[in-house]
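Re: beginner question about structure tokens

> Can someone show what the tokenized structure looks like for a real chain? I only ever see the sequence side.

Sure, here's an example I had lying around. Input first:
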Amino acid sequence: MKTAFRRAGYEAFTMIEVMLAIGIFALILSAIYGSWSAVSRGARIGLTAAAEAQRERMTVKVIEDAFLNCQMYQNNQANYTMVASTRGDFSSISFVANLPASFPGSGRYGPVSLRRVQFWVEPGSDGLNQLFVEQHPPLLATNVDSQPYRLGLGRDISLFLMEFWDEREAKWTTELVNSNQIPRIVRFAVGFGHAENSTTNPRELISRIVSLPSTVITSAMQAPGAVP
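And the corresponding structure tokens:
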């Protein structure tokens, strides 16, 4: 007995159609990856810019906070003098301040709020100029167990200038006229990075004028009953 087998007809994709579908799918994947890469790159750039802006604001605020709380005692001027070097593009300054609890590193010293602070610029671990702040109690030399606390502030510093208001001459000067007195007004400028196609101009320059609210604390104020 003969049995007839009938093959059912069916349709299939040709090789050209399969390759065309794969090509379209690859184009879609490339477009998705390109969009994701652009968004990711933009997010990284935005986060980096935000971090740099925050670091710049913090740097300026730390300097302002230190100046706004500057103090000097007449009976102990040897330990409370203000020393500044303003030569070149990078100034440095050291003085004593009654720092607030929000000042970086305050937790290290507990209730000791009166500390000498110093600001200066030097190359950091990445080779870029960095603004540093160092602080310690004024009488640190008598306490061998305590070490100055150093903190790096702004990175890629291209400028750090400082000027003081000379009341006698009524003009700004880079020289600290009297290290045993507190200047009435201080002006400082911090330059971050470098402008495009420039090796001298900062990418961003932030300048502040600070009116110091404090004067030298006299002997009578330190010991009211000792001086008539």
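Each token stands for a local structural state, so reading them left to right follows the chain. The chain has a mean pLDDT of 81.
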